[in-house]
Specification:
Blueprint: H1 2-5, H2 11-20, H3 25-37, H4 43-57, H5 62-71, H6 77-83, H7 89-104, H8 112-125, H9 130-137
Helix pairs in contact: 2-3, 4-6, 7-8, 7-9
């Protein structure tokens, strides 16, 4: 209870924590099941919260965020598909535009073509898709 009291946790994070504390497998399953029954552990709620936080504070696009939810946080593909529509194209544009402005400072002194190529590559690495990148360039 102490572990989940500080912030929302994904099911994978709780299972990993319990494993690190050397709790046996059967008890881990019981603990996770009980937390789910009490609505203290819900990957969908966690995914929504994580996505909103990344949109507000981060500079990542939808591809990188969905990859983080899958690999680092252990969310199922179904959960990720349910929460990703919250990252609308308008929000992607806002985050991408801010990221591009920040990155442009590093690319000063380069030719226009080279600057645009580097910026495009930077945005793709951050997880933005080509249509959003084109909107940002316009």
């Amino acid at each position: 209870m102490n572990y989940i009291s500080y912030q929302l946790r994904s099911e994978k994070e709780v299972r990993t924590y319990l494993k690190d504390k050397e709790i046996n497998l059967e008890d881990r399953h019981l603990v996770v099941q009980r937390l789910k029954e009490l609505n203290l552990l819900d990957d969908r709620t966690y995914g929504e919260s994580y996505l909103r936080t990344q949109i507000r504070l981060g500079d990542k696009g939808p591809s990188v965020i969905s990859q983080q939810l899958k690999t680092k946080k252990g969310c199922l593909k179904k959960v990720i598909q349910e929460v990703m529509p919250l990252y609308t194209e308008e929000k992607q544009f806002d985050v991408g535009y801010h990221t591009a402005e920040k990155a442009l400072r590093r690319f000063q002194g380069k030719s226009h073509k080279e600057m645009m190529q580097k910026l495009s590559l930077h945005l793709m690495q951050k997880g933005f898709r080509q249509p959003v990148i084109q909107l940002i360039f316009r």
